[in-house]
Amino acid sequence: MTGRLSGKVALITGGGAGIGRATARLFAAEGAAVGVLDVDRVAAAQVADELAATGGRAIAVAANVSVDAEVREAVRALVESLGPVNVLYNNAGVASTGAVDVADEDDWDRCMAINAKGTFLTSRAVLPSMLAAGGGSIINQASVAAIVGVADFAAYCAAKGAVLALTRSMSVDLAPRGIRVNVIAPGTIYTPMMEPLLKARGGGDVERGLATTLEKYPIGRLAQPYDIAAAALYLAGSESAFVTGSVLTVDGGMTSQ
Ligand code: 1HS
């Protein structure tokens, strides 16, 4: 541990699995007290318990980030337990299915609600305590899908594009008040969330879909959760003190070709 987040309180949405869990582990290892927020109460508790068992300070809070009352209550509980939030990672997200002609309306609404509205609601709920603490860092989660069109992923591309634009808006509004806001655009990590897309891309064969996906990544592999967590750590800490409104692609060159 190098203590890059010593004395800080970090809230990570979607902290119960994947990138969120990897980031919770890294932030705790760097000295942060961590609020692990997830819609899956059990998953959040498992991560918080793991961090506490290895000497960290952590609590689990359950909320659906698209439901304002749940988000407000989770943030209230977090602040009461750990203190004002210095770092917020809006990581919670869901994928979608289909091109624009076949995507269904419920899928569109769910995708916009969790990815885009969730970022808005959680940021809004955290801001009073972050401002009272004198400032902080907000990290939003976009995707390469906010930058390039990804086939059969219409609602997801739109929602992540909204997160990217919201980040720029937030960075302008909040910089004078001591809060930096940046967005990470990760490339694909092979997770259950990606399987419907990979299956469609592979003509029903996930392995073939994976091979096709790999060809999009000049670096020769897909991302791992730690790759994204390490970027979040940079944006959370003082080494990025002059960085706000930035889009940090962590994509193995996927959007560069
Ligand atoms: C889910 C993640 O944000 C990546 S979007 C799909 C990108 S790729 O599989 O077409 O490289």
What tags apply to this protein structure?
single chain, 257 residues, alpha/beta, Rossmann fold, 8 helices, 7 strands, 46% helix, binds 2-{[(2S)-2-hydroxypropyl]sulfanyl}ethanesulfonic acid
The CATH topology of the largest domain is: Rossmann fold
Number of domains: 2
Strand order of the largest sheet: 3-2-1-4-5-6-7
Into which percentage range does the β-strand content fall? Answer: 5-15%
CATH homologous superfamily heading of the largest domain: NAD(P)-binding Rossmann-like Domain
Question: How large, in whole angstroms, is the Cα Rg?
Answer: 17 Å
Which class of secondary structure composition applies to the elements? alpha/beta
Describe the main β-sheet briefly: 7 strands, parallel
Q: Identify the overall geometry.
A: globular
Q: Brief overview, please?
A:
The protein is α/β, with parallel strands linked by helices and 257 residues long.
Could you characterize the architecture of this molecule?
By secondary structure, the protein is of the alpha/beta class. The chain folds into two domains: 9-187 and 224-250, Rossmann fold (3-Layer(aba) Sandwich); 193-222, no CATH class. It has eight helices and seven strands; from the N terminus they run E-H-E-H-E-H-E-H-E-H-E-H-H-H-E. The protein has a seven-stranded parallel sheet with strand order 3-2-1-4-5-6-7, with helices on both faces. The longest helix is centred in the middle third of the chain and has 28 residues, at 105-132. It is globular and about 50 Å long. Bound molecules: 2-{[(2S)-2-hydroxypropyl]sulfanyl}ethanesulfonic acid (1HS).
